Amino acid sequence: MTLHADYDPNNIFAKIVRGEMPCVRVYEDNIALAFMDVFPQSQGHTLIIPKRQQARNFIDMPSDHLGSYMLRVQKVARAVEAALSPDGMVVTQFNGATAGQTVFHLHFHVIPRWDGVPLGRHAGGGMATPEELEPLATKIRSKL
Ligand code: AMP
Q: What is the chain's Cα-based Rg?
């Protein structure tokens, strides 16, 4: 049902892009914005969103803008790895509420994983404070 619907310009990530809502920023250029997930599933959980396209999900994203956006996803994923030295890393993305999507502006999750450390709940764990997230963002930024 929610896989195809009108883009809501007042979704939370659109507000973050416009500077109407705060975020702990990791990276920004004219193509993409990356920031720390406030309900992190692991230490360093980072989101990368396209800035200019009103795409709800991967399916909606105009193909001619996908390549430049995906390069930013990889750039941030590499920086997360370099900064935090995880044993593994999930790079994922959900399309539609049925698939688990909760914010309807395209985003990729970069979720570092460490052996023996369980994955937190998707979009449902504890909320991290900016004070907790900023040192992680600083480390990641230093590798960009
Ligand atoms: P999804 O369920 O794939 O749409 O992912 C949305 C993600 O956004 C979840 O991991 C949430 O924890 C995260 N999230 C929701 N609101 C915010 C926010 N204001 N700042 C940063 N991350 C958020």
A: 14
Architecture of domain 12-141: 2-Layer Sandwich (3.30)
Active site residue 107: yes
Residue 88's Cα: distance from chain center in Å?
17
| Residues contacting residue 92 through CB under 8 Å, at least 6 positions apart | 108, 109, 111
- pTM here is 0.97
Map tokens 């049925």 to a residue.
Answer: 98
Place of tokens 């659109």: 14
Catalytic residue among 4, 107, 109, 122: 107
Among the listed residues 35, 60, 56, the one whose alpha carbon sits nearest the alpha carbon of residue 104: 56
Provide the 8-state DSSP code for 98: G
Pocket of ligand 1 (CB under 6 A): 12, 21, 23, 37-39, 47, 94, 100-103, 123
Q: Where are the domains of the chain?
A: 12-141
Q: What is the pLDDT of residues 96-116, one digit of tens each?
A: 999 999 999 999 999 999 999
